[in-house]
From TrEMBL:
It comes from the Bacteria. GO terms for biological process: molybdate ion transport. This is ABC-type molybdate transport system, substrate-binding protein. One of its GO terms (molecular function) is molybdate ion binding. Transmembrane segments: none annotated. The keyword Plastid does not apply. InterPro entries: ModA/WtpA (IPR050682). Pfam families: SBP_bac_11. PANTHER family: MOLYBDATE-BINDING PERIPLASMIC PROTEIN, SULFATE-BINDING PROTEIN.
């Protein structure tokens, strides 16, 4: 699929996504016309754009065909204009995606890719709301590909008529991240409510790791109420000792480093990545009943109204190849079985 010609006004008008700028002349014309039109004067229901947390440029990327990568606002602008494929995936894959997208572009040269790696529930809100708000600007768009850590998010898209098929493309498991040497001698889930332990936990609002996995473990252990303290929020202090993150895979290693938290529930692959980066942390492994290693499955599908369906289909086919599976496995993700890598209807 060829790149979008940004100089073509006709094609630009057909695009579903655009970056909202300040165009004073157009705004005044619309305002004047609306004033004289009883139909247009009726207030339209505003779409609820999802808000990208501050300083998340490294979770917003645009991959050029020459191997260079742009980040932040520049990447968002490409996603709303000339990217040949737009992929939004659960943020805990951020450290693997340069390798994965690089392998995809090697298999499909000439395809530029826009990528967002943020909590899957937050991404889902952006899809449902029609785009993002970041650094004071609006970016109204949807992806071609969406991937989450659980089929539940994709089922919501099916209900909305936005996605019909999915595949499972890899697996993971829960661990607890602590400071190197484990100074608090944290051994299991029940230690999260000790009086001397400060926790950094994924938020229950839009972080899939908490929504689908960690919360039910905390509830089974009978400690969820004590941790949440009746609050379901992001970037918030629920008790004197617990913090709910906005983006746990970025914040929890930093909070442990800065001695703001002693422990956090994370993915196994996130501990591995922190160690690769030299972080002074280590993992507390959990039994299968708490790590959910036999349950965690990452699901992906193409949006029915995506602008680049051919490239989206090629990306889904690519995920089933050894090149893609090896790229993820290099970072500790568990490969999916061949039968899981086949597209199936979302039930």
């Amino acid at each position: 699929m060829k790149k979008v010609n940004s100089a073509s006004a006709a094609l630009a008008l057909r695009c579903r996504c655009w970056a909202a700028g300040v165009v004073v002349g157009v705004g005044l014309a619309i305002a004047a016309f609306t004033f004289h039109s009883p139909v247009l004067a009726q207030p339209a229901a505003a779409q609820e754009l999802a808000v990208i947390p501050p300083d998340k440029d490294t979770d917003l990327k645009f991959y050029r065909t020459d191997g260079t990568i742009q980040e932040g606002v520049a990447a968002l602008e490409h996603m709303t204009s000339d990217a040949n494929l737009v992929v939004w995936v659960a943020g805990n894959q951020f450290f693997a995606m340069d390798e994965v997208i690089g392998a995809f572009q090697k298999a499909y040269p000439g395809v530029t890719v826009g990528l967002i790696t943020l909590p899957p529930g937050l991404i889902l809100s952006a899809i449902e709301g029609g785009g993002w708000r970041y650094n004071g600007r609006e970016y109204r768009c949807r992806p071609d590909i969406y991937a989450s850590v659980n089929l539940g998010h994709l089922q919501r898209l099916k209900t909305a008529g936005l996605m019909l098929k999915y595949e499972i493309y890899m697996h993971n498991e829960l661990q607890m991240m602590v400071a190197k040497g484990n100074p608090k001698r944290i051994a299991g889930i029940d230690d999260l409510v000790r009086n001397d332990v400060r926790t950094s936990l994924p938020n229950p609002v839009n972080e899939g790791i908490m929504q689908f996995y960690a919360r039910k473990i905390l509830e089974r252990h009978g400690i969820w109420t004590q941790i949440a303290n009746g609050r379901e929020c992001a970037s918030c202090q629920t008790t004197e000792r617990n913090w709910f993150t906005a983006v746990h895979h970025r914040e929890t290693p930093e909070r442990i480093r800065d001695d703001k938290s002693d422990v956090g529930i994370v993915w196994k692959t996130e501990v591995m990545q922190a160690l690769r980066q030299g972080a002074q942390v280590e993992a507390v492994e959990l039994p299968a009943s708490d790590s959910l290693r036999d349950e965690v499955s990452y699901a992906v599908g193409a949006l029915e109204n995506g602008r680049h369906r051919e490239n989206a289909d090629n990306y889904l086919a690519f995920l089933a190849t050894p090149a893609a599976q090896d790229a993820y496995a290099k970072f500790g993700f568990v490969k999916a079985r061949p039968d899981e890598l086949t597209l199936k209807p979302i039930n």
